[in-house]
Amino acid sequence: MEKDQAKIDFIYLSEPDMIKAGVTDMAKCVDAMQEMFELLYRGDYRMAGSNNDSHGAMVTFPENSPFPNMPKPTADRRFMAMPAYLGGSFGTSGVKWYGSNIANKERGLPRSILMFILNDTDTGAPLAIMSANLLSAYRTGAIPGVGARFLARPDSKVLGILGPGVMAKTSLSAFMVACPEIDTLKVKGRSRKSLDSYIAWVKDTYPQISSIIEVDDAEALVRDSDLVAYCTSGQVGNPDEYPLIKREWVKAGAFLSMSSLCNIDDAMAKESRLVMDNPGLYHAWAEELPRPLHHNVPLIGCKFIDLLEAGVLPEARLEDLGKIVAKEAPARQNDDEIILMSVGGMPVEDVAWGTYIYRSAKAQGLGVPLNLWETPALA
Hints:
Layout: H1 3-6, E1 8-13, H2 15-21, H3 26-42, E2 45-47, E3 57-59, E4 78-86, E5 92-100, E6 112-120, E7 126-131, H4 133-151, E8 158-162, H5 166-178, E9 184-188, H6 192-205, E10 211-214, H7 218-222, E11 227-230, E12 244-245, E13 255-258, E14 263-264, H8 266-271, E15 273-276, H9 279-288, H10 293-296, H11 300-309, E16 318-320, H12 321-325, E17 339-342, H13 347-364, E18 368-373
Parallel strand pairs: 1-7, 8-9, 8-11, 9-10, 11-13, 12-14, 13-17, 15-16, 15-17
Antiparallel strand pairs: 1-18, 2-4, 3-4, 4-5, 5-6, 6-7
C-alpha cells in the first residue's frame, strides 16, 4: 500500500464546532430522523445484540465491592457504549460513549457527558470525534417531532410537558416543527429554578407561545392538551411510582410522546393506538433483562411488552413508527383517535445526525484536524 493510501486523518469537533455545523437545527434533525426511521423499517441498519436492535452495552456497579475505589451504584451512575451502522444516504457507522452520574449537577456539569466517534464503514477508520451532548439531546428531541408529523393533529395548539429540562427543550422544538400552530404550553416541574429557567427559554425562543401555564399535577397537565410529552427523570424500579396517565384525563385526538418514566392505566392501554419507535429495541431489552421489564426500563414501551407477554395485549396492537413513516401503515386516521408513542433512544439516531453534522462541518472547514498515522507501525 502506498504511503498516502495508508495515512488516516480525522477531525475533532468541539461543542462550539458542533453548533456552527448545525447540531441545533431542529427542522433538519427531524428530517434526518424521518429518513432514519424508513431505513430502520427497511432493515438497512445494524445495532448491537443478537437481534441487532440493542440499545447498547452498559457498565454498572455493585452495591457492595471489596475494592474501595470502585464507584457505588448511585443514581444514574453508569458507563455505556451505543454502536450502530446506518445505510441509505448515510452509509456510516459510529458509537456514542458516555458516563453518567446525577451528582455531576453539584459540580455544575451535565448528568451525562457524551462523546461520539463516526467511522468509515468500509475501513473502520475514524472520520470524526465529536462532542455529543447536543447531538444526543437534539436527536432524542427530534423523535417526538417525527411522531407528531405523522400522528398528531396538525392543528394542535396546546402542549403539556412534564419535566422542564433539556429533553423538554428539544421536544418542544421538534413539536414546533411538526405543529407550528402551538400557542399554549402547560408545564410541571419539581423545582422553582428549573421552571423559571425553562419558562424564560420558551419566552425567548418561541414568542408565538402566548400562554404558559404552570400546573401542579399530571392530571392538569394532560387534560385538554393536544400534545403531551413526559421528559422527567426519577427512580427506576416501581412502576406505581412512575408518572401516570389515565385515560379519563386524555382528550379525543391527543398525541402523547413518552421519552421517559411513564405508566398508564388499563383503559389507556385498551383505548389508544400504541406506537413504538422500534419494536425490536424493546424485544432486545426483553432478551437482556429480567421480568417484569417495566421495572427495569421505565419506558412505556416496556409496559407494552409486559402486557403482551401477559396475554393482555395482542401483538397486532403494537405499532411500528418506521412502518408508518414508510407509508406501509396508516398515520393518524381521524381527529378523535388517541395515540401513545414510546421513545426509547437508539444509536442509529446518533449515527444519522452525527453523519449530517460531520458532512456540514467538513463543508465549512470546521473542527481540528488530527492525524492517526502516516503509516501504521504494525501493518
